[in-house]
Every structure is written in structure tokens, then in C-alpha cells.
Helix-turn-helix transcriptional regulator (Blautia obeum), 783 residues
Amino acid sequence: MKKNIQSVSETYICPKKAGYKFRSARKFHTPLYLYGVTGIGKTALILNNVNMKKCSYYSATTILADEINIEKKTTEHTVVIDDLQSLADSSQKEAYFEKIKELLGREDIWLILISRCPFPRWLLPLRAKYIFVEIEEEDFLFSLDEQIAYIEQFGFELPHEQHQAAWSIGGGNPLSLFFYVMENCNLERTIKRQWDYLEVHVYDQWDLQLQEFFMDVSVVEEFTVQLATMLTGRRDVEKLISQAEETGNFFEICGTNGIWRCRWPMRKSMQQRLRRRKTAEQIERLYYSAGLYYEINDQIPEALDMYEKYNDMDSISRLLTANARKNPSSGHYFELRRYYLELPDNIVENSPVLMAGLSLLQSMLMNIEESNRWYRALEKYAEEHTGSEKREARNRLLYLKIALPHTGSAGLIDIFKNADLLLRDRKAVLSEFSVTSNLPSLMNGGKDFCEWSKHDQELARGIGIPVAFVLGKYGKGLVPMALAESYLEKGQDIFEIFSLAEKGKMETDSGGKLEMFFVGVGLLAWLSVLNRDAEGAEKTLLSFRERAKKDAPNLLPNIDAFLCRVHLYMGKDVADWMSQAPDESREFCTMDRFRYLTKVRIYIQRGQYQAAYCLIQQILYYAKLMKRTYIYMEATLLLAIVQYRMNQPAWKETLQGCISRAEEYHFVRVLTREGLVLMQMLEKDKFIWQDAEYKNQVLTECRQMAEAYPFYLSEEGEEQIALSTNAVKILKLQAEGMASAAIAQSMKLSEATVKYHCRETYRKLGVKNKTAAIAEARRRKLI
């Protein structure tokens, strides 16, 4: 039997957080500020917790400030001023400011202010002078248990799943629950009633300009001032946003990084209102304006989403064609794959640019047959057409011969020589290439050039100039950096590598591409790591990151992955990076390969061997299909490590295969970067080496890396180590670069005492030097 809802007090349940703050404010006679959307329970909290015989209640919507006159009381008297958000006129605000200031200064009055918005700007001077307890909108929301208690007092006994569904939609909002009970726990009718309530009792009370503003911006999930200006055609957007902030708590994000986002229920209400009050043509115009804004700002996926909303196929086709003219590093092929794959064949077959784009995209998606189908269609188009259309098709074919990911590097020397002649004779024009795919590598960038490394000096002399010419801006600094990377992988003279890398960076800085500069930065970072200076590598990458953030944000994901690799050597926590790493279980994006290889290493360190194994299998499939020799070697080595950790006998055979393949190219660093874990495996069994010098080079450098980074990829979860307060402080100062003498002076200890603490710390951590101690302490989160 359901109880009749007669009054608030009979059914009122005080939200735990709001009640706690209220009691705390009352106990210490602290001014109270409550805010939240309509129906959240602000006024109900006061009515059910304040002795109304000793309380004066005023609403700013009906009472002027000078009408509030409270006589001197001998006992504490509560004064409540509600609806502060309704004060729009500056003179009204000034009057209320003075009245509130007066009331705050009286010891016989406990002041409570209520509004729909967070603490307003015009009251901030008082907030700076007086301490307020603030009960925020979130504090009024019911927990799931509180919601169940509220509903059950009306005689409804619902299954837990239904309670959970109601809580997921309403989020514990009391008004939503009130309507839910009124509608006999029908969720669909509850949502409609809530929207109708907001429509009549909230939105209709707003200024018309504010109503129009929120309807217009509801077509986008979030907006900037510039986007809102373009949507509304108004120049006073910032003023309207400020007015909205003082009218209610409507924003989920309030200007963070220049971005605003409306709360989901409000946005949905505004979209409903928009559809009822504006014509289809007016709404289409809003979506077009939003799409145009995104297009101008190179936010292509967002622009396409807007154009798709009203089926603007002309704009969609135009955008996809423009994107197909870009290389995979600067374009949005993977993000836009749905739009490309939904294009009718008859539209694609009439555009050489779209045919080339589909061939490239299908190759990136590892659909080799489909990629070849569109390549053949483009060849046919070139045969059947003349003039500019034929030239466009032939230019695209030449581009694909070089750029298609699945074709590898075989035959590229002749293709580059031919392209060089065609370009110099002005018989061809090539679009910009993606040489690195935004990776810090040329040998393992857009394509795999391991085979070229076998003849690096000869090729640099023979075709270095033609290749650099064909690649245009990407050719700046290419030859010295390609040689530097080849030498780095082979473990050759470190000073020559430094020299070539710096030369390549200088050439790139003279009219080249920042993607190529990243290669030089990456080479120097790896040299620092190999030279036991992971901190130096981190500084190099962080410095470059600041530049890339401004000039080449497309590089940031791989810069962050590189930093994560360095942090693994340093023993730093990589949980933040892992939280935003690509999810291979949802989709495998070939452009994220460097990030996937980083993620595998974290899986290994965390002991998540099954996850590591599954991701490695995806990487191996990709590497084999797309002729990625280096990645195949690297993934095979990581597979051997996983098998070794899982006590699978196959690890020996897997590792032997990796060693033999790496030795074929004399690649040292693909092995030695794994340091201690590889050293342990090599010491467990005998392996076949063809070249004794190569074997010694690998073993020597593995030992050096093991000593420098003794806990790289080591399993987590070992015994906890307790260090004294002084020992931890000394370690922190060492990590900042301070010497023992300076630390002793800073801590007012003798240098001998500092050194004693250091020796004890090294012993407890199981390390032999300061660098290793700092890395291990960071890994264990001791500093």
C-alpha cells in the first residue's frame, strides 16, 4: 500500500554529506552557502533541520534587500536568504551585498544563503573575509542506499537492478526520485516529467537571450567562446556565459582550458526545446556552422559528425577528399575509416584522390586485397582518362608505390630513382610523405628499412640525394639521421652517432619537418639511456615535448610513450600513461605500434603475462603481414621474456630465433635495451652465435644495462623496505643532484653520517650505486 505524499517533512530523508556539513556549520555558527539545480533539496534541507520559530526566511525574487530588517536578538536567530541567482540588476546585487555584509557582522545571527549557482563573483569579497561552509550540489545527491530507503517508504519494493537503473539515470537527484515515485517507478515517464518540469518551471523563467543561447549550443557536446560565437552569431557570448553561471549550476566543465560543457540532462532538454521551437532549416544551419568551425580548426572527425547529422553528403565528400590528400601522420585516416568505408563505390571510382586514399587506408587496416583492388582501380582510371585527370591518377599511383605500408621497402631504390627523374623533369608532382609515421625512427618509421642498414654507407652515397629530393621537407636531415640510427642499432662509435644526429637535427631545423627532428631527439635520448643517464633522456624529451605541443601536437602520443619507456628505466610510476594507453582489446591501430610495444613492457613489469602475450600476438601478426622486420624482432624478444617468466620451455627457441635474426643485421640495441631480464635468460642456457665479436658486444652491453637499471622490467610485489626519515631525505636530495658534502651541510649532519646512510640504503635496496638507488626508490615509491 503506497503512502500519500502530503508534505516534505513526512517523507524527507537528509542526504548524508549535506547533513554532516549543515550540522558542522550550525555547531560552530559558521555562515552557510547552499547551491544546486532546481529541486535538488536546498530549501528542504533548511525546512527540515532549522527551528522555523527562530528563523526568518526571505526570497530574493520577492523581497528587496532594504526590506530585510532583523531586530537585535538575545539568542541565536537564523536568517535564510534564498534565490540569490535571481538578482540580475547590479544595483540589486550591491544592495544585497551590503545587507549580507551587515548580517555577517552580527553575532546573534546565523546566516544561510541559497542559490542555484556556485559562490557568485559579486559576493567573493565577503567570502575572502568570512569563512563559509559550502554545501554543493553533489552533497544533496542520494547514495543508492538512501534512494532505496526513500522509495520503499512509499510502499514500492523493487528489484536491485531497477533501483540501479533509476540511480544511473537520476544520479540520486531528489527531484528525479520524487517524480519516479509519482510515476509509479516508470523510468520513461519519469524522464519525460522531469524534462517537462524543467521546461516550464526553470527554462521559461530565463531571459529570452539565455534560452536562445543554450538551445543553439546544445548541438555540440562542448564549446569554446569562438564556437559559441559562430553558432549564435552573437558578440556578447562571454557575458551570456557569465549570466548563465549566476543563474544556475548548468555547466559540467566551466571554462577549463577555454572549454565549456553543459550538463547532460540540461543539454538533452535544450535539444528537445530546439526541435520544438526551430525549423529544420534553422537547425541544419546550426550543424553546418559547427561543422565549419571544426573544419577551420582542423578538427575533422568532429566536423564530419556535424555534417552527418543532417546528411550533408557534399561537405562529407569534400572533407574526405581533402583528408585523403594528406599523409597518414597528419591526416585522420583511422579516425575517419567509417566514413571512408561507407562511401559508395561509384563516388570513389570518380575521384583519383579518394581511390588512393582508400588504397592507403585499407593497407593501414591490413586489408591487403582491398588495398590492391583500389590500386588496380586507380591504374584503370589512369589508362582510361587524359589530361589533368590522367596526371592526377599517375601522381597518386607513384605516391602509393612509395607509401603503401604493406609493400615494404623491396624495390624502393628503383622507384625512388625513377621518381627523382620525374620530379626534376616536372613530369610528376608528389604529395607529402609520412617518412616516420610520427615515430622517433627512420629505420622503423613509415616503412621498415632494416635491409638498407646492411649497406647503409653505400646507399647514403648512392641514393641519399635523390631520396632526400623526392621526400621534400621530410628529406631535410634524412641522410645523417638515417646513418646515425643504423650505427646506433649496430652499436657503433657513440661519438660518430652524436655527430650525425646533431647534424641531422640542424639540417631539419633549416626548413625541415618537426617529425624528422623527433628522430634526432629520439637518437640522443637513447644514447643517454645507454650511457646510464636516463634522467638526461627524460630532460631531452620533455624539452622537445614543449615545442611539439605548440608546433606538432600529433607527435605527443609517441613522445609520451617514449617518456614512459624512459620512466621504466628510472623506476618511475607509469600508471598515468597506462590509463590513457590505446586499448588493443577494442581495436588494433597500426599507427599506435610504438605505444603497444611500450604497453607490453608495462604488462611484463606488472606480471600481467596473459595480457602481454595476447598483445604480442597481435603485434607479430601485424609485423609479419606488413613486412616489419625490426618490430618482428622486438616483439619476438618480448615474447621470449613472457614465456621465460611463465616457465614455458619454448622461451629458449623463441629467444634463439630473435638472436639469429638480430645477428643477421648486426643489431645490438634491439637486444641490449632489455638489460637485466635478457642477461638472466642468456645465463640460463647456451645459445648459438655466428659472430664471437657480436656475441661479446651484446653480453658486455647487457651487463652494463643490468648494472645501470637493475630493476627494469623486474616483477612488482616484492618485500617492502623501510628506510629511515634521514635516509629518505638524503635519497631525495641525491635525486635533485646534490653531492654528499652539500647534503651534509643542508641536513646539519657530518659527511660520514651521510655516507653511512647511503651505504645502508644501497644494501637494503640491493643496488651498488646512487643512480640505481634513486631508480629503485622511485620504483618502490619511496621518493
The two ends are 61 Å apart (CA to CA). The chain is about 60% helix and 5% strand. Strands lie at 32-35, 55-59, 77-82, 109-115, 133-135, 251-256, 259-262.
